[in-house]
Amino acid sequence: MAKYKLEYIWLDGYEPVANLRGKTQIKEFDSFPTLEELPLWGFDGSSTKQAEGHSSDCVLKPVAVFPDATKTNGVLVMCEVLLPDGTPHPTNARATIVDDPDTWFGFEQEYFLYQDGRPLGFPREGYPEPQGKYYTGVGYSAVGDIAREIVDTHLDLCLEAGINHEGINAEVAKGQWEFQVFGKGSKTAADQVWMARYLLLRLCEKYGVDVNFHCKPLGKDLDWNGSGMHSNFSTKYMREVGGKEYFEALMAAFDKYKNEHIAVYGPDNHLRLTGLHETQSIDKFNYGVANRGASIRVPHSFVNNGYKGYLEDRRPNSAGDPYKIASRILQTIATVPTP
What we know:
With 339 residues, the protein is an alpha+beta fold. It has helices at 140-143, 147-160, 186-204, 236-240, 244-256, 258-264, 269-272, 300-304, 322-334; strands spanning 2-11, 20-29, 41-44, 57-68, 74-82, 104-115, 118-119, 165-170, 176-184, 210-212, 229-234, 287-289, 296-298, 311-313. A hairpin with an 8-residue loop joins strand 1 and strand 2 (20-29). Helix 2 (147-160) packs across helix 3 and helix 3 (186-204) packs antiparallel against helix 9. It catalyses: L-glutamate + NH4(+) + ATP = L-glutamine + ADP + phosphate + H(+). Belongs to the glutamine synthetase family. Residues 88-339 form the GS catalytic domain.
């Protein structure tokens, strides 16, 4: 038997953006524990905006497990929050979302690294050189001295945890970066995005750096890019059958439900979706081949393959909840009958 450090992780009740929370307990197992072996646990919901002080008990239900390479016998445990009677807590978005393992999602998570109240690499006064050389840049003047170490270490931690982390790059603005996560099914994909966020936040503690997931941290009046979480998606039908007629019906449905999508695509999105900086205006919907200013970008490969493959919804923002984003995409897809 060995003692394992079980770090239980969940989403709190803060709005409009939930915070990640975590605490650790020690349990003995013969080997790395399976999900079925992990016990329920509890926490004080009155300290996380999930309960009143006179009845503060909330329950943590393990739903996904990952190895933690930073610790000997470390285990990262993604949890849903339940009420004491075992029903999903009102803040538990995961428990009620639409899911389908044959629907694949690729989330492109953008974020800013912040230090001393400003993006990493910004001067104490004023601004750095205009955007241009930072995207996929290299060298101290482009990315600074510790950002590369952070994002490379984060990549390793995610891969060692079994997260399907697919890549990283420096983004358009100074101090802005992106990582990509791919998963099959709403819950699996979103679990991995939340866990990747958690690992990044925890890693940055040792550097005295914060992670800013706000979609427009530098303000709408400044000529600096915001942060999105472009969401690539494909169903089994889209991959294997597709067709122009089905595609056009699908886009009509996304247009019809555009307001429902915006409602769950992240707070303050009006600051980012202005029609500038490779975005479509928040109150409009359009699509286009290789058009980064569209609501949905259609890859050349999709059209060239007979309208089969994946599509990219560019409207979700960096602070959006991937559970809700994936679920809303699936809800809209479900309204379109397959021929």
